[in-house]
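Our preliminary data section would be incomplete without showing what the modeling component actually yields. Below, a chain of 93 amino acids is followed by its predicted structure, encoded as tokens that our downstream tools consume directly.
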Amino acid sequence: MICKDIQEVRAGIDRIDNEIIKLIAERGEYVKQASKFKKDEQGVKAPDRVEQVIKGVKEKAEKYGADPDMCEALYREMISRFTDAEMQEFKNK
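Predicted structure:
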């Protein structure tokens, strides 16, 4: 979309941010559920799965024209925080 002014740019960014945050919240709900199926803390951390996800993220970033390094950094941070939350869920079950 070609914007005619900064307000349209900001409105577009705000709309996208709203969707991203909703999707992060939805992802968080799945993370909480995942802890129910994990047998130990190593299963929660799942380093092989993390690398599998990162590989997919970078491939998708390239496919859609996003910066793969930025997407990787964002996902590594998000996964780290979700892993912390999942660990809390795991310890409380």
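The domain at 6-91 is CATH 1.20.59.10 (Chorismate Mutase Domain, subunit A). The longest helix spans residues 6-34. Preliminary results of this kind motivate Aim 1 of the renewal.
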